[in-house]
Structures are given as structure tokens and as C-alpha cells.
Write a structure and sequence with these properties.
- There is one protein chain.
- The protein is of the alpha+beta class.
- Among the domains are: 3-99, no CATH class; 151-255, Chitinase A, domain 3; 403-420 and 530-562; 424-525, Chitinase A, domain 3, CATH 3.10.50.40.
- It has helices spanning 22-33, 38-41, 56-69, 79-98, 105-130, 135-144, 170-188, 193-200, 222-228, 262-293, 326-335, 347-369, 376-399, 408-417, 419-422, 443-458, 463-469, 484-489, 492-498, 532-563, and strands at residues 45-49, 52-55, 154-163, 211-215, 240-242, 245-255, 296-297, 311-317, 320-325, 427-436, 475-482, 510-512, 515-525, 566-567.
- The chain has a four-stranded antiparallel beta sheet, with helices on both faces. The chain has a four-stranded antiparallel beta sheet with strand order 11-10-13-12. A three-stranded antiparallel beta sheet has the order 2-1-14.
- Helix 4 (79-98) packs across helix 13 (376-399).
Amino acid sequence: MTVSDRPQASGLAAGFLSGVESISVVLAILLVLMGTPLAAADTAIVATYRDGNVGVSEFESWKSYRQDAHTSRDDVAGAKEQIEDLVILKILVDRFDALDLGQSSTHRARLDLQKWEMAEKLLRNQVVQASRPSDTEIKAAFDADPKRHSRPRQWQLENIYKRWPDTPTEATRENLRQHMHELRRRILEGEEFGALARLESDSQTRLRGGRLGLASLDELQPEVARVVEELEAGSLSPVIETPDGLTLLRCTQILEAKNPSFEEARDQISKGLRRRKFKKAWEALDRRLIGEFKPTHRPEKINAAAPETTVVATLRINATTEEITVAEYGVFLGRERIRQEAHTLDRERHLEFLRDRILLEAHAHEATRRKLDVDQRYSERLAWKQLELKARMALDEMATPLIKTPTDEEIKALYTRRIDDLAQEEKLQLRALKMPIRRDLPRELYEQLANLYERLAEGEINLEEAALELEPHATVVDLGWKSPDEIWLLGRNADAAIKPLKPGQVTVPVQEGQTLWIFHLVTRRNPRTPTLSEARPRLEASLVAARRLQAEETIRRTILAEQKIEVMP
């Protein structure tokens, strides 16, 4: 049924349920089941409004939920504002029911996903708690290799960094060298290092006065490490030249190498053991649930023309086959923040997401089976979150008819005003092979990585094949589209290695911190300003979003005006 098909009534509140609102019903059932005397508590009223009232227990539950949720409005909102928000919520939930929005498969899927996400968190927390290592396990891990937890000598550093120009000449390089030598002279004569770093440095560390933090030699570029090794506390480095620019370093403190005691290493060992135990337990749980729920996947059914009722996956729950439709799967993809339409993903990605969707529901059922969702505080929080989501969906439904479609003239005017903002900067699509640098890994492994680079550069193997040969130490990561600034944030070594790449090429092994990377440039998108036609969808969406906010605020004000809330003294 469309909005125009529904019966018309005067006022936004027309058609809303009268009598006891659905919120009170939900909370009453929950609280009675928990043994809380809601009826007795609600004989006291904190506010009245045209269509009902707000009881004490209901308001206290609402305040507690809002406090847990840490909403920014609650930082400044007093009792009256919180009561107004609660009344608006109740009216919108009534509207959700009056419009039969719960009959929509999309709305039901959103409510189910929210409920399953919360239950999955309960299950995950229980598995995390069960994965805590015992004192015996922690001590055994320490005794097995005490040196693994040793700390190398570290230098506390501050830096001033100047990047080479994009197209440097020898003259511009020399000018930059002279400038850095002048900065060094000024520091030696007493100017504050941090102040100059804030003014002069091209590094993000300028935001904190050049403070780079602690670094060991194996975390630094070789040419930098050679200089740092000679620094003493309080000393200033010469100007260091690297492929991507010039650096000045000041050492403020040196921490000598240390073999920590068991107590000093305890937390680090415990965290590592807990991560590994959790990963193993969670993967075992997933395998058991997949075996139990016997899912089927039909990614071939997903395409642009597929009806929303098309079944793309099934699972067995309590001897009943449950179907997942295109519409429900689309809601899940929205939850995963997948911007593309479902039909643009390849088969492997669909299989991955369908598996995640099935496991989410399976985790929720497992949490219920373990009776993790019977806690009163959790039940109240779930009730409020579901009601908020219903109110959100009702508000969307009510606002949509009030939003005027932007005209061509409005879109053109916005394009003219925002043409500079619409310019698309250069973007690089990157993938990478990464491998940790650790003392306990054999030297031969790093020599093998160097040999694999040669084969990658020749096109004999791809990243996945290289990772298999280095298994389990290397992994392939999809870095997606990166701007030059985002690439720079990967690290100076990475930035310098990626810049000269052409599509299809790979970098030499690059060290950033305690990780070695081989970057693969998939493709490069040159900077350009989109045409009006290209920018139109984005501009229209921007105008619609602004008008939706205005419409929603109008609806809220109208509800408050119609309901005439009176707060009890």
C-alpha cells in the first residue's frame, strides 16, 4: 500500500493507537516477567499529553537507557526535554503500527538484524571471557621463550620533515636542503623545536609539536636508523636525506634494551593468548553452527532484475527451513556499508556476505540457546532500541511525502556553488602483501619474500600465490581506493615506493614499523571535475537529504504542538 492509498486523517497524530501505547505494553510485559511491579510504580505520573501519559517506571527506564546510550542530547537535556523526546518516540511508534509498517519485509529485516546484532555481542562477550588464559598458560608461554618478550633499545624522537616537491629539480632540492640547514641552525641557537615543527613540518606529527614517539632501530628506514643509533639524549641529528624528503630528528630520551620480568610481560602475553584462544573458539563455533543450520547459497539468483522475493539463501532452524530473500539480503548489505547494489558484487563476495548473514542469525540463536538474552537490563535495552528503530522507520515514511523533488534549476545552482568541492582528486586502487617483522621468524623467510618479489614483478605469480608460499606469516589485504594524502599516511617508505608505480606494477618490499609490505597498484584514476550529468545523482541526494532533515524537524515540532505535554510538578 502506498502513502496515497492510506486513509487520510486530520493532524499527524490521526490514526495513532489510543489507550495504552505499545511502549508501555512492551515494557510492562518485560518488567512483569522480570518480577518488577510496573503497575504499582506507574500509578505515579510524570507527564501527560493529549494521547496518553508518561509513568514513573517508564520514564526511569527511558532515562537509564539514554544514559547507557550516551546520546549527545542527554549531555544538556533536562527532564522536560527527555520527556518530549519520549513522547515523540511513543507517537512515532504508534504511527508505525497504525500504518502496518511491520508488514514490510524490509522493515522486519531491519528489526531482526538489530536484534541479532545485540544477541551476537552477548555471545561474543561470553566467548571472550571463556578465552581468558589461566596463570599456568601465561607462565608457560613466558618460560617457553623469555627473549621473545624482550624490548630493544628505543629512542624517544621528535621530527621536522619536509617533503620533496612533486616534480623536483636539483635547484629546488638544494633550496630545500639549505632551508633545513637553516632550521637546524636556529634550533641549535635556542629556538624551540616544537614551535618550528608546528610551523614548518610536512608530517602529521606537526599537530603534536613534532613528537614522533618511541622507535627502535628496526622500525626505521636504514638511512635514518644509522643516524639515530649515534644520537644521545638531548642531541640533534644532522639533516637526513631520504628518497621522499628531508628530516631533522631530536632525541629527548633513550630507553635501554630490557628483558622484562614475568610480571612486566604478563599483560602482553595474556592479550596474545586470549586473541588466539578466542579466534580458535569462534572459528570452531562457526563450523559447528554451519553444520547444524545446513545453509544453502544461491548467489546466481542475485541480479538487477531479480524480484525482492527471490530466495538467495536458506538455513534450517528447529527443523524449519528459513529463506533469505533479495530484499532481506539487501538490508544486510546496507548494514555492512556496501555502497554498490547487490548485483554488482562478484560471486565470491556474495558467498562471503551470505555466509556472514547466516552466521549472524545462527549466533543469535546460539545466544538464546545459552540463555544469554534473559538479563533484565539487556531486555529493556533491546526493547528501547527496537522502539527507536520503529520510530525511525515511521519518521522516514511520514517525511517522504513532504520532500519535494529537486528541480533542474536547483541542481544546476548547487553544482555551480560546489564545483570546487566536487572535483575528484587522483585515486589509486591498491592491494598489498603484508608480513610481520619478528625476531623469532627465520632469516630465510625474508630472503624468500625478496625472491617472491622478483617473481611478482615479472608477473609469474600474483599476491595470493605469494602469500600461500609464505603461509601462515603473510596475508593479502585489499586497501581499496586511496588518495595521495591517504597513501602518505601509510608511511613515508610506502608513499615513496607507491608514487612511481604504473598500473599492474608492484613495489619492492617496503618496511613500515614492524611490517613488510609489497604494494600492487591495480589502477589509477586521474584527477578531474565531474560534469553536471555525472554529479547530478550526488547533488540531488544532497538536496533531498537536507529537505528530509527539514521535514523530520517539522514533524517533531508538529507532534509537540498537537500533544500539549504537561510535566507534573
